[in-house]
UniProtKB/TrEMBL annotation:
Catalytic activity, reaction form: ssDNA + n NTP = ssDNA/pppN(pN)n-1 hybrid + (n-1) diphosphate
UniProt keyword terms in alphabetical order: DNA replication, DNA-binding, DNA-directed RNA polymerase, Magnesium, Metal-binding, Nucleotidyltransferase, Primosome, Transcription, Transferase, Zinc, Zinc-finger
Protein species of origin: Falsirhodobacter algicola
Name of the featured protein: DNA primase
Record-annotated Toprim domain positions: 262-344
Gene: dnaG
Record's cofactor remark: Binds 1 zinc ion per monomer.
GO terms classed as biological process: DNA replication, synthesis of primer
Gene3D superfamilies membership: 3.40.1360.10, DNA primase, catalytic core, N-terminal domain, Zinc finger, CHC2-type domain
Length: 637
């Protein structure tokens, strides 16, 4: 069976070699550099203990320095699964979610045609290069010199020029024996509606060759010399060779530069990409006359885990950035993100480099902000949140945005960051002195009394220790009973871990829940440290490891205690803010009632994780009753 042109290239672009190989090897993480796509492991093809098997994830090839095995993802599947080539293609196509094409006896003929079209494109590149060096290209050469592109730079980028002639390219190519159909199908010329001879698509424009990741010419881009032209930039149409939404300008060279440690920068167009590359930022790409697409975003993540989107600081640039945010949210994975470098208003990368040099752009690059910051700015900048309704509307919008994130761990961390930003925005607004019933004029300062502070401090240290102990029991319990993880996924994500070993075990549990069977192996030191704690060893989930039902009940109870304790802390903090400056005797009594309610909640046993909110609700209701009853006012008689 023959495959359609481009099918294998598309397949290789959609899969990650490290993921394919990772099912068969154990990576040496001391030697590997995940950020650069550089992986090492003992070779799966011969017996060895050292890590001599190397995977270059960006280039999509592996090589063993011991047995000299080498190849790509298809070769690896063929050799390790002992299957034929087409069966290996089917295996990887299923993994990539690509349907296998129907059998096509004309596939070989189509491949020959694709090769012919690429040859036509190369001839067009040569023709336009000659035109730039001719007398007709003098104006274009002056323009390029004004953009600080000397002849050597023009040669590197293979920049050409299309004179303002209706059939200049068409006549040049047909004179070489190339048929009109091939010229038109390559996207270089178009047929008029009246059925006459084809005419050149590019006229009066500086020409930029567009090449795929393997360096093959697949289309052209042109910048108009006439400032009054209908389109400043013009790309070739979509053809058998060119799909603008699935390619990037400067893809191959940028991938190579990123592999050597440079940050991947995503610029807006050809000239920005060229200007940045010539200034030393060689890992720069650009979309091809369209907004960034999902396929382009995945291509970027194959090159770099955290591309930097460089956009103009005007309204259009920010709108483009926010479109990328909306596109990327559902696609986020652990370790795969975006940062945004917003340039000063009125400047594009080329302007900034001319004005401030490469160091000026480097400064902007270093100030790039994560995607969550841009999401927050979109929903808050220039808006007023002076009412509960407006704040509730903000919360609703942000929850909807975060809900689009598929990865539960990333969704959790986005939620935590939004909470932090929300506290920065609203937290200081509650510092005004509260209204005191029966008193008019200037409110009294909100200063807690000595007795109040002592009443809180008396319980804070013991409670913090109790919560830390519960956290240890919960994490160790799920490590001993991983079958219970799915039922408690949300609760585990929401654990507010503070100790490093707690965070490591929490992350490993979530990774294990989502298919990483070796995640817990990497935190054995932290788990052993938890298991040595006396209160962990005697806890039912550990002491009675064979009783899964008992473990489920006990872990649900520990979550309930944590939830109730945190609810009490919130209520007490709110009470302090609401009641600061009032009669100390009543306030202290109220706080003692809250502490007693919390302790009672901690002693209760809950049989089901769905009941976790009842104690908090009861406590809130109790404290509200105390406020409504004006407990701080001494009753007569």
């Amino acid at each position: 069976m023959s495959l359609p042109p481009g099918f294998l290239d598309d397949l290789r672009n959609r899969i990650s070699l490290s993921q394919v190989v990772g099912r068969k090897v154990s990576w040496d993480m001391r030697k590997s550099n995940q950020g650069k796509g550089d992986w090492w492991a003992p070779c799966p093809f011969h017996q060895e203990k050292s890590a001599s098997f190397h995977v270059d994830d960006r280039k999509g090839f592996y090589y063993c320095f011991g047995c000299h095995a080498k190849g790509d993802a298809l070769t690896f599947v063929k050799e390790t699964e002992n299957v034929a080539f087409m069966e290996a293609v089917e295996i990887l196509a299923r993994e990539a979610g690509m349907p296998m094409p129907a059998r096509d006896p004309r596939a070989a003929e189509k491949q020959d045609r694709r090769t012919q079209l690429q040859q036509v494109m190369e001839e067009a590149v040569k023709h336009y290069r000659l035109m730039l060096k001719s007398g007709q290209g003098a104006g274009a050469r002056d323009y390029l010199a004004g953009r600080r592109l000397d002849p050597a730079a023009q040669e590197r980028w293979e920049i050409g020029f299309a004179p303002d002639q209706r059939q200049g390219l068409f006549q040049a190519l047909t004179a070489k024996g190339i048929t009109a159909d091939l010229i038109v199908d390559a996207g270089l010329c178009a047929r008029p509606d009246d059925g006459g001879a084809p005419y050149d698509r590019f006229r009066g424009r500086i020409i930029f060759p567009i090449r795929d990741a393997r360096g093959r010419a697949i289309s052209l881009g042109g910048r108009a010399m006439d400032p009054n032209a209908r389109a400043k930039y013009l790309n070739g149409p979509e053809t058998e060779l060119f799909d603008k939404g699935r390619n990037l300008f400067n893809h191959g060279p940028a991938r190579e530069a990123a592999g050597k440690g440079q940050p991947l920068i995503v610029a807006e167009g050809y000239m920005d990409t060229i200007a940045l590359s010539e200034a030393g930022f060689r890992a720069t790409v650009a979309p091809l006359g369209t907004a960034v697409t999902e396929d382009q975003l995945r291509l970027m993540w194959r090159i770099s885990d955290e591309p930097v989107i460089a956009l103009d600081g005007d309204a259009a640039g920010l709108r483009a950035a926010l479109r990328v945010v909306d596109l990327a949210l559902p696609l986020l994975e652990a370790g795969k993100g975006l940062r945004f470098a917003v340039l000063p208003p009125g400047l594009d990368p080329d302007d900034l480099i001319k004005a401030q040099g490469a160091q000026g752009f480097q400064k902007v690059l270093e100030g790039a902000e994560p995607m969550v910051g841009l999401l927050w700015r979109r929903e808050t900048e220039g808006k007023n949140f002076d009412s509960p309704e407006r704040r509730a509307a903000l919360d609703k919008t942000l929850r909807a945005a975060i809900a689009r994130i598929a990865d539960p761990s990333i969704r959790h961390h986005y939620g935590e960051e939004i909470k932090r930003l929300r506290w920065e925005l609203f937290g200081t607004r509650r510092t005004r002195a509260p209204f005191v019933p029966g008193r008019r004029g200037t409110p009294v300062p909100a200063v807690p009394t000595t007795a109040t502070r002592q009443s809180l401090l008396a319980i804070a240290e013991d409670e913090a220790m109790a919560q830390d102990l519960r956290m240890s029991v919960i994490l160790a319990g799920f490590a001993r009973h991983p079958a219970l993880l799915p039922a408690f996924e949300t609760a585990i994500e929401r654990l507010a871990t503070t100790r490093p070993e707690h965070r490591r075990v929490q992350a490993a549990l979530l990774a294990s829940l989502h298919g990483d069977g070796r995640a817990l192996d990497g935190v054995q030191d932290a788990l052993e440290s938890l298991m040595q704690l006396p209160h962990v060893r005697i806890s039912p989930p550990i002491r009675s490891a064979e009783d899964v039902d008992l473990a489920r009940m006990c872990l649900a109870e520990e979550f309930a205690k944590l939830d109730a304790a945190r609810g009490a802390e919130i209520e007490i903090r709110d009470a302090m803010e609401d009641m600061a400056g009032l009669a100390d005797e009543g306030l202290t009594w109220r706080l003692s009632q809250a502490a007693e309610a919390r302790n009672n909640a901690g002693r209760s046993r809950l049989d089901d994780a769905n009941d976790l909110g009842e104690d908090r609700t009861a406590l809130s209701r109790h404290l509200q009753d105390l406020i409504d009853g004006q407990i701080w006012v001494k009753k007569k008689g």
